[in-house]
Amino acid sequence: MKVNVWSTINQLSKERGVEPRVIVKAIEESLRIAAAKFFKNGEEIIVDFKPEKSELRVYVIKTVVEEVDDPASEISLDEALHHNPEARLGEKIEIELPSETLGRIAAQAAKQVILQKVRDAEIEKIYEEFAPRVGEIVTGVVRRFENNGTVLEVNRTETFLANKDKLPNDEFKPGDLVKALITQVQKNSRGPHVILSRTSPRFLIKLLELEIPEIAAGNIKVKDAVRIPGERAKVAVISQDKDVDPVGACIGVKGNRILAISKELQGEKIDIIEWSSDPVAYAKAALSPARVNKIVIINKQEKEMEARVDKDQLSLAIGKKGINVRLASKLVGWKISIKQE
Q1: H, E, C per residue of 145-172
Q2: Residues spanned by the domain of 165
Q3: How many domains does the chain have?
């Protein structure tokens, strides 16, 4: 049978970077699977596909016998004569897939394979472009909304920001520019492939790097960050240069640097704390903006401590819904309880 798909295979190969032999092999396999619906006795199906010569044959080989014991490899003389008038007992004959059936199957197989190969090539391209960028901030254009999230276009690629990875006050309109962190790049054939987040502590750290030159230059190092997205965050920093005040540099003149980041995070309050290897000093700083009089270690093995504060600092130390003390505990890695002196 004559089939003219070679030019299509070559065009697909050039456009998508898929080797022609890979496409040919996939078409052959599709033809083999589809032909099994015609040859229903478990025959060994042979696909002879020479696209460059526009030649295609799909057939099985059977031995002509008087009585058929194995229909997968044998055929009766009467049936064999329908396929080949010169068939003789004991001979092997080729039984070809009828040309009208072959034409329909070939067209379907080629279409399916080409569509799949295009999809596979696109997935591979997306993976190669975005996998090295995991942990990086990108700016995407809001394209549409789905039940469980928002689709953003980044460099002509659709990315996905799930509702759970949005800030509580995030409200987007089509065409809005949105900053988010790439957290995952997947290679699966279904669903989104580039996953974004605005709630990850890493997103906050990356925003600090973008806004604060001393962090980008390495003069200040972010040791840790914890967040309750949209509410409050605490960031521990340390200076690599004795002449640089890590907290002051991060906050900026009149708080301009930290306010810019807070605005991006829909008003999330950000406490910048100087990191310390001493858990007592670290905890005291972590409970900022509350003033702590004293930290008492209750149980060193269980990592439990108590912060003692004046009455007017009690609600500040605990924070709204216990957020301040909860974040401080998470940052320091100790269970902190608050007690009024």
Answers
A1: EECCEEEEEECCEEEEEEHHHCCCCCCC
A2: 137-197
A3: 4
